Amino acid sequence: MTEEPQIHCAGKRRQLFFLKITIPIIIIGLLFIAFKSRSQSTSDPLDGDMEEASLGLSNLIEKTPVDKKWSTLVTSTHSANPGLRYAAIDAISSLRTPDAVRLLEDALHDSASHVRQRAIESLPNVDFKSGFKALLGALNDDDTWMRQAAVNQIGALTQQNPIECKHAVQDLVALLHSDDKTLMSLATGVLHRITGNNWVIKSKQSVTEKSAVINHWDTW
Fold it and tell me: Which of 176, 154, 181 is closest to 220 using CA atoms?
């Protein structure tokens, strides 16, 4: 008869012990969530990623006096935050001035790949001659993403400047000997648009078929 109360008391002690452990953990968790939420809401969007910085810079430029807007953009291109540098280059890409060209050319040497990519995509639309020259250089860049961005941009320019884009044929053919399968496929697609030749590398092709495509371009 005495064992049942003892078991009941032991169960209560276990419940109390469990509560003592879990309640502080729950409280700490709630405090952490509240702190994180507060820090996010009070953080400066100019210190954020590409999307956050773009929105933050847009709002800043909107509030900035006209005579200070350009200097604000220039300053932003030198920010320690690559997200803000990207936002600045993106904003500058809508301008058509020699100063904009200079900043876009400078951005081609940025330490952040996505900033360089945005510059290589934008420059031909701001100054075609300077931009196309940069695109040809980017086809031989060490950064795979830059090479892919350059190929895509040349492809986008084939309709408006088909004659000029023919100057890229030799460099595009050279990319067919790359280890990057995506780059090879992109290159043959752009070569097809420029020349009209239907020698295109596709993912389902065998090694022999792909080699035949490359040989067609090498001997063309």
Answer: 176
Nearest residue to 77 (alpha-carbon basis) of 55, 98, 108: 108
Exposed (0-12), middle (13-18) or buried (19+): which is 128, by Cβ within 10 Å?
Answer: middle
Phi, psi of 160 (to 5 degrees): -85, -25
139-169 burial code (b ≥16 CB/10 A, e <16): bebeeeebbbbbbbbbbebbeeeeeebeebb
Contacts of 93 (CB under 8 A, 6+ apart): 100, 104, 118, 121, 122, 125, 126
Spatial distance between the Cα atoms of 135 and 114, rounded to a whole number of angstroms: 15
> pLDDT tens for residues 30-77?
777 766 655 454 488 999 999 999 999 999 999 999 999 999 999 999
Residue 123, burial from CB neighbour count under 10 angstroms (0-12, 13-18, 19+): buried
Per domain, the residue ranges of the chain are 47-126, 147-220
Other Cβ atoms closer than 10 A to 17: 10
Class of domain 47-126 (CATH, top level) = mainly alpha
